[in-house]
Amino acid sequence: MVEMEAKHRVSPMKLKTLAAASMGAAALVAVWAAACRGTQILNTTSSNDVYELSADIVYGENPRQRLDVYRPSSSGAQPAPVIVFFYGGGWREGDRGMYEFVASSITREGYVVVIPDYRLFPEVQFPAFIEDAAEAVAWVQRSIAGHGGDPDRIFLAGHSAGSHLAAMVALDPSYLKKAGGDAGRLVGFVGLSGPYDFLPLDEGSYLQELFPAATRDASQPVNHVRDSGEPPLPMLLVHGTDDERVWPKNSRNLAAAAREAGGDVKLKLYEGVGHKRVAAALAPLLEFTADTRADILDWLARR
């Protein structure tokens, strides 16, 4: 479940050449995964003229409690819908600047995109990073109108561990209430390759310390689908069938539980797709490797 950094450099020009030569999807993503901080390659090849960036906005007192807001360059007079995107990294690594390619991909369709940082293990354990996510979302509800966003059209989204954060905030209203926000105003959740039902934990794993025994049941999003007393938020759950880091059963189990609770859920399983490709396919350069971007935009438009 932990995302690893790679150690070999591949130039953006070489990556473009490989794509132009129509490499197989799996081979191209393998090249991306082998690049040093592969997300930087995707950022380099993503357009930065489709958005206006307000960077390093404070939402809390800790240095990790900062966020970036990407506003569409072509935004009109009407407030735009908002996507709050939480990145993955096994709850112990990651940086919001590494995911500019996600903002570039979505802002060009007219959405405001917010990417927060949050505190990481071993500085904190569960539920501190969920509390950070809730603080960031509460800030968005209070302040996004000043950045061209509509506070009544906020979607939560994430990949891997970031999907876990987004799901917990979306499903357990107590986090946003404590942060001064209102979960009832959220309009949807998009989860990519998310861990929602991942107990029991492997013996000897750092996850044993990250998720203390006394709070493990509470750390599972699948256990919170009925917490609001209403059907859970509409959900789009995307997972690759070849994901060996976060098993696809996580998305299947959350989808089943949410439907049983009366929720509107769309589950998309990509045959032959692994953990990283689901997120990498948001980048223009790798869009052809999976249907992630098209499926997200289609689902959002229907909301």
TrEMBL record:
Its EC number is 3.1.1.1. Residues 67-256 form the BD-FAE-like domain. Pfam families: BD-FAE (PF20434). SUPFAM superfamilies: alpha/beta-Hydrolases. InterPro entries: AB_hydrolase_fold, BD-FAE-like_dom, GDXG_lipolytic_enzyme. Keywords: Hydrolase. One of its GO terms (molecular function) is carboxylesterase activity. This is Carboxylesterase NlhH. It comes from Saltatorellus ferox. The gene is nlhH_2.
